[in-house]
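Data availability excerpt. The first of two example chains:
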Amino acid sequence: MTLQKLFLTFFGTGLAPKAPGTVGTLASLPLGVLILYTLGPSSLLMLTVAITIIGIFEVNKYEKATGIHDHQIIVIDETAGVWLTMVITWYSILSLPASWGPWLGLALSFASFRLFDIWKPSTIGWIDRNMKGGAGVMLDDILAGLAAGLLNALVLSSLGHIMI
């Protein structure tokens, strides 16, 4: 497997025969958690920005070589989207009990990101349908990650107020 394919498929998870986007998202969670807890949310955010930018260029090269737009094996966009969700959610779990706040945040990050990534409401869907190349592939997931993170912040901050 080439380095480009390893990157675009997030270590081969995009090659899953069924639901590669979901598999790629699930595979991204443990590494995201490791980065959050060892290096902090700002490092995860910087890595998200980096893989988004690199992803745009690598997807462009892949699409030029294959002629296929947004091939299902490409899941690095899911990685970037769910990591952005995790960064935003991180700040909301701080008001919750330490025993279950991180687990709830992780579960919500996965579920809410997949919701917005599959549903593609509003601008997310417009980007998915109308933007071509690497920018279209990466940016709809970044926007889905942002929407999911904001939803999580709303839900978790409401939960935190109820518990006080």
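And the second chain:
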Amino acid sequence: MQTEEQKQEGISVEEEKKIKKLSTVVMIIILVIGLLVTTDILLVTKRGVGPFLAIRTKVYDDGGTKEYYGLGYKVIKYNQKVGRRDTVIGSWSIKYNTTPETYTISDLAYSIINDNNNHVGEFIRLTGTIENKNVKNNTITIKFTDEEDGKYNLTVQAKILSENIKDLNKNAPVSLIGTVTDYNNKTLIIENAFAE
């Protein structure tokens, strides 16, 4: 039996039950889709695999950079012959960008402290002088030493992709292009770098 209030509103008990069931089904579908999208995003950002739920829409003629669109997100997997080799994930509005931010080692050191920006995730070009090189691990180290109080000291370790590390000399000027992957205890790590 319907109450007087329900008769006035025009919704029967059976209709109310149907609406509740439909609302529950819709909410479960939304939660499942949200969980799948979140898992896909985490796999791309943390493990570097995928995306599995996004559609590849474009392949650039730069060495194989790929662009993917997912449900509310976009992935760009950079794979330039010489240049950017990282993965960027964001909203559909992120743009293909292979122009690095340019810094000297001293400018970068001041920026990290003064701007409170560790530059992790940024694609940069860094110029400095080679402090050390490790041919076995294909890494070079660049340092900036703050002569006054050490506040701005910075060590940059770059994992070089190119084979020309043997041609690089200690104390020689160098320009690195790569993506900052970590900053910890005044040490900045650049992965997938190219040295010029």
